[in-house]
Fold these 2 entries.
Entry 1:
Amino acid sequence: MRYLILTVLSATFLGCTATPKKSDSDNAVQKSPISYQPYLEERAPNLTPTLNVPENVIINNATIMTAENQTLKGGSIWMKDGKIQKISESEIKIEGAIVIDAAGKFITPGIIDTHSHMGVYSVPHVRATSDGNEATNKATPQVDALNSIWPQDPAFEKAVQAGVTVAQVLPGSANLIGGNGVVIEMHPAISARAMLMEAAPKTIKMACGENPKRVYGERGGPGTRMGTYAAFRDLFEKATEHMKSLEAYDKKLDKWKKDGEKADQKPEEPKRNFGQEAIVSVLKGETLVQIHCYRADEMIQLVQLSEEFGFSIRAFHHAIEAYKIRDLLAARNIGVSTWADWWGFKLEAHDATLHNAAMLSEAGVYAVVHSDSSTGIQHLNQEAAKIYFSGKKAGLKISENDALRWITYNAAWTLGIEKLTGSLKEGKRADLVVWSKHPFSIYAQPDYVFVEGVREFDRQKPNARWSDFETGYTPMIKPAQTKTKGGTK
Amino acid sequence: MKNIIFCLILTFSHPLFAQDVFRGGTIYTGTGELIENGFLSLNSKGEISQVDTDSAKNKTNPSYDFRGKFITPGFIDAGTVLGLSEIWAVSDTNHGGAGDLDRDKDFNQSGYLAAEGFNPNAMAIALSRTGGITSAIIHPSGRLISGQSAWVDLESTKMFNAKVIDPSVAIHVSLNSKSARSVGGSVAGIVLLLKEAFDDTKYLSQNDKELDRTRGKKSSLSRQDVLALKKALDKKIPIVFSVSRAVDILTAIELSKTYGFQLIVSGGEEAWMVADELAAAKVPVMLNPYANLPSNFDKLGTRVDNVVLLHNAKVDVMLSTFDGHNVRNLRFAAGNAIRAGLPYQAALSAITTTPAKYFGAKNVGSLETGKAGNFVVWTGDPFEPSSFVEAMFINGKKVSLDNRQEALFRKYRTFKRRGTVPAKRIKLQDGDNGDK
């Protein structure tokens, strides 16, 4: 399944809407006008499929936060065949289904992290596990994070136990074009390919600012921001030429077919160029562009670049200064994935404010709270909560539903999978978390995590260790026997 | 009239005292006590003059009504690099360690004082207050013996946002694979170097002539280093070991017994494995309760309930962000420790009384008569993201909660002089030559 992403052009006035524009209807499945589409090749076949058996299960008595602007008290949800079959305000009874009583608990969609390096920067952090930056050329569009992911990274287990059901694993930010990202489902598997979310469109990582400058400043450039911009223009100009050559071949092929397919006149197939094809895919709107960029003025330049070459930016990542241009981002329907409160590590991260995501959200931008960290990914609910409560206190017009969307629906939109997951809706994937308390409490922890209806975490009955690395290695004693008691009373 | 006075007091950041009385809410004293309907008063020196249950005999008008709110001691992060770097990647702003300082004693920088590199106007300081932080210990980094940490209070002075209360509260040592690599050796090599340094300190500090000869001369220690280490071997200040592996923690305990210093374990990812040994040696552990990944080969035994297992074994624990820019998140670290199973009051002590106890601050950490008026008024449970600092007092003086991040927010809350965003430029297709 492929998505052609069209961008809504209508201007959104700042602050007039609290939720991003609906774009479900914009995700039309449309065939590219070019019939020769090497760049749309499927990834290599999955040679080791994982047996994921979805449960037929009903969870009763919970507070269900759907991320569809709806909270059901004493709600009930039924999952079967990996899909949400029914959500109800009263108890659901289905013969043969397993029943979980979740009195006092909360259900949310599974958390989606748009920016992870799990598997490409695995723990333990040693040279041997450092596979995130192919820092051998300023642009490596031909590489795919899929080929770096170590499926035994112990971080995967911790992430799923924290309620993460889907994550985008990206190459690092050393290169202007770092390569393709991967949208993975949090099922343990023997290969990264078996974790790939088949239905997700391709994504690509780009970067600007201090990182590429630092890495390539003494390796042939670019060593400046102007050099970076010029290099981007060159890259997109070359890819545009490549696209034109593909289109020309396509026309010749059509003509040749019309003229009777004479063997001696068959046009010569263009040479494969995997890097060019990856960028052509961006130009055709088939690959979602995810750009690491901090400063407002640089984001503006990249929007200019995208309009010069006619491609869409799906989301800026980190984007510490995005709040300064939230009007522009809202008008262009460009999402922003950022942290709650990281700052201070470089000059381009100096103008941080805790209210970045909340201001963006208020302005109608698809705001996302991402982790960029195998520790941070384990408390994205807390990160969203920090921004939400601070934003409310500061008088921003944001709702609990908005805040939940920062780590669910909006993240799904950023990855082009919002029709499949990211909210609790009948017919969508059964990706959900059952929390011990309200997910915006510091004391909340997942009791159950379902990934496409498969129970990947159950606090009472922990699975076998995900990672072979941690299997049989660590001395273990029973978990500490202390009641978790949040609150002050 | 009463209301007007009340509003005035709330509005103005006043130098207060004497009559300042807080009535009606819940007080966590930090000593394990919880006082509902509390009463807290300050004397003219900014010290706590009374902390108790409110009663009819307290006739004073409430100058600060905190009904429905909470008062805790100011939080203390014992493991920070606050104010030692404005921006990590801008080397000009980094003053956190001796680095490549041209000294003979390359592994040993005991004489180095973090306090001398502290920037009391670093932007992270004002921000830290929003997390209820009133004090922090700032430690130097790098080499095997990095130098001495300082106690800083986030109190406003005429020109600064913080002040150094004590420039020498502990010596900091790294005993782990990373620091071993930094000197080209193994952890065994570190132990060798440490033993030499401790032996030489003992010898030189008992022998003034020999000590004088270290001036301007090569030796395993310089005069400044000896004087600093001597304080630790005389048990005047503790030595904080940055150490993760259980077996290395045992080594550190052995060293502390042999040379007679108070050991504090920092990091301590595998400390739970040797919890009984730590308890027996009365060694506290300072840790980050978010740590649960085997992030390097020293930390394969990392687990999120480390803090709980240590507490259950009667080891004193301190919680730290180990951060410089986000020390404000210490309260969430405490919340996470509770989530992992640490009792509420233990989490509170871990960021108040315990660091005060081990880093030699006798008059802070808890709310008791005669102690400094360092406390925070919270809108709710201080560990929840839904709660905020409503007011903060250091030495009885109300401090500002404003910071640069809020200033940026205010500046960009509305767009002044910003025109309408133009419509997207449509890329022309081949053959098109007009406007679309």
Entry 2:
Amino acid sequence: MEITFEHVTHSYDANSPMANLGLDDVSLKINDKKFTAIVGQTGSGKSTLVRHINALLKPTAGKIIVGDRVITSETNNKNLKPLRKKVGMVFQFPESQLFEETVEKDIMFGPMNFGFSESEAKDAAHKMIELVGLNQDYLQKSPFDLSGGQMRRVAIAGVLASNPETIILDEPTAGLDPVGRHEIMDLFKSLQTKGKTIILITHNMDDVANYADEMAVMSQGKLVASGLPSDVFNSQKLLEDDLLTLPQSAQFAQSLAKKYFQFDKLPITIDELSAEIKQQVNGD
Amino acid sequence: MNKLIMGRYLPGDSLIYQLDPRGKFLLTFYFVGIVFFANNVASYVFLMAFVLFAVYLSKINFGFFIKGLRPIFWLILFTVLLQLFFTPSSHPIWHWGFLTLSKESMVIASYIFVRFVLIIFISTLLTLTTTPIEISDSIESILKPLKKVNFPVTQVALMLSIALRFVPLLVDETTKIMDAQRARGVDFGEGGLIKRIKSFVPILIPLFVSSFSIAYDLAIAMESRGYKDGEGRSKYRVLKWSKRDNVTVLVMLAVTIILLFIRSY
């Protein structure tokens, strides 16, 4: 689904002395079937931005077009289910949303709310538990007996089980070990190749460089940059203003550039970096 | 969610803000007490004028005080209607079955209404201008004499301030969990009563789980920083009683004396 933000402003606690702008005139297009990363410092409005996509928050001004739905300040709270079925959302620390007696029931919770039959929901649970890297034995356990990492996987399975077209991920790998992080990120990438639109909020620039097709940079409620990661990471201005840090490969390239090497454009992934080095070494 | 909480602090600065919280706390209770001495038009007008003057001194937008009335609007309405129609009278203007309406009942109902407004305005004034932590500090300070009879004052004060600290945490947590379950297709406040009650299970269980874990983490964090309650803990926020607090007490005494003069006996 294509998602378009048109001059979206969101003010928290509007009409009170404590009002503050969560979003300030944001216009952004998130393309269908792409992997879009949203980065920015804590409090820059990333989470506020994505919460508008499934109408958990409504704009104070402006509008959001999600597929064939338009969300404005006047959007009614009724009849949002079809939208929320299409837009799945994995929150920060999603393990805190688990509540059922068994993992299976918890994964089935979303699909059942969205009108799946019991057997369809059960099928989805059986499929999803494998997809997130746990085996069928886990289905009958209590979610509260699992480790933190396993709970995270169950919670992600619970969101994916409703088969949403767009998946929003709010720092899905925060606090996971490196192996777990790669597994989860690879899972999301593979979902994208199967036709899903992925929106990822992250602080990890390597994840952006390795997985994202497009990226957006937020700062103080404003959208300060958007485009291809290779272009955005090459923007001197963003780096100087401390709005962005570089992925490891680009940092490595920057150090290399101090001696002998020259980069027209900073490579952002290991592959790009090694290809570039190979070419420069052999070329001389 | 934030709107549910009565007694929200509003950052600001004015004379009322600067008063010692202990004084504000006790005088608010005192005022609520003397409101019940008023029994004629003049005394209610006088108390109202005093409250409005205090509101003016606080420099807070009047709208916040009106908002303070909202949570108990139905209670006020119910009480006023009860007084209006159920006060027995020998000269009813109108009556139908057991309902009677008379001049006296109208007067009493309007007194009750003004009494509610006075009490809510003054307590809203206290909570808007005093942070919860200041209130808990003043409770501790006021309870101090009870230490003599082995009442655990410091523990009670600590429990109070932790409870207060948990309110915003739990509000945040609830909002977060509600959002997460909404994203999984829960519609709060839709369908029949049973369905509505059921829709809260997915919030309550995660909320219990996370408040236990927050409490557990907090206990460990406190212990690892060497928290030990009992004698000799110094205060980070020191309460200071100053001249203007004395003046406030005097003003309140004057209000009491004037009130006692103009009320009817």
